[in-house]
Amino acid sequence: MQFVILTGASRGLGAAMAERLLSPSRQLVCVARSPNEALAAKARARGARLDYRLCDLSDAAAAVRLADSLGQAMKSASDVSRFVLINNAGMIEPIGPVETLAAAPLAAALQLNLAAAMLLTGSFLAATDASGAERRVLNVSSGAARYPVAGWSAYCSAKAALDMFTRCIKAEQGDRPNAARACSLAPGVIDTDMQVTIRAADQADFPPVERFRKLKADGALGSPDEVAGRILAYLERDDYGEREIDDIREH
Fold first, then answer.
1. What's the order of all strands across the beta sheet hosting 82-87?
2. For residue 164, what pLDDT is reported?
3. Distance between CA atoms of residues 31 and 116, nearest Å
4. Which position among 52, 147, 155, 240 bears the catalytic label?
């Protein structure tokens, strides 16, 4: 049996991955700020094992409680051949020049896009270390981690840090027995609510906004379901983790 934890499962790419992961032979733990009734209904119809947890990962205290709870759940799981953690939850805000960024939204963005993933990964690695099961961590990154974008300093910085965090996981795991495999994977530009937020931005706050509006107008955005399928296929690869920084568009 696989034991999979997926954050940001209520909409967009996360919801699409969650639906594809539903299976009677897989324990799927989904984390999101809001419910996903459609996913719950599909889980019941398929006889899938779904544990759906409501948690706002931008709240540091809530993220700590969740990490502890998930750690206990993983330690008590039996007959698991592979543990998987998919850190997908993220937010694009705050959008704007550096001098306009306020402390509270900046802290929330860094907590959700980076710190929560670090906390959950730490709990994941500690809880599964003695399990003997294979372990894989997938951090959903962004092209913005690798190229600066005016108006996205908070998002770019957090995703760049997530990439480096993934490199650190690989360095720490090294040649350990049953070393966890980790990858920070950019998914490309996807037709999700995040893109709606991006296109609604004022050009004064986000100078490249017209490029993203054109991507939508030209039908150049990836569909969440199609990208989810490609990401999950990538996660199954025998060489997963050999490239700790990757882009799904290259495969």
1. 49-54, 26-32, 2-7, 82-87, 134-140, 181-186, 245-247
2. 99
3. 12
4. 155
Interatomic CA distance for residues 223 and 190, integer angstroms? 6
Residue-level pLDDT at 146: 97
DSSP string, 134-198: EEEEEEE--GGGTS--TT-HHHHHHHHHHHHHHHHHHHHHTT-TTPPEEEEEE---B-SHHHHHH
Q: Are 75 and 127 in contact (CB under 8 A)?
A: yes
Quick check: 184 and 244 in contact, CB under 8 A? yes
Our answer to whether residue 155 is catalytic in this structure is yes
The answer to whether residues 142 and 161 touch, using CB atoms and an 8 Å cutoff, is: no
pTM over 0.90: yes
Q: Could you tell me which residues come within 8 angstroms of residue 74 by beta carbon, excluding any fewer than 6 positions away? A: 3, 83, 123, 124, 127, 128, 131
CATH classification number, 2-190+223-241, choose in 3.30.450.40, 3.40.50.10260, 3.30.300.20, 3.40.50.720: 3.40.50.720
CA atoms of 13 and 210, how far apart (whole Å): 23
Residue-range domain boundaries for the chain: 2-190+223-241
Tell me the per-residue pLDDT of 130-188, one tens digit each, with 9 for 90 and over.
999 999 999 999 999 999 999 999 999 999 999 999 999 999 999 898 999 999 999 99
The answer to whether 104 and 33 are in contact (CB under 8 A) is no
Tokens representing residue 151 in the block:
């108006």
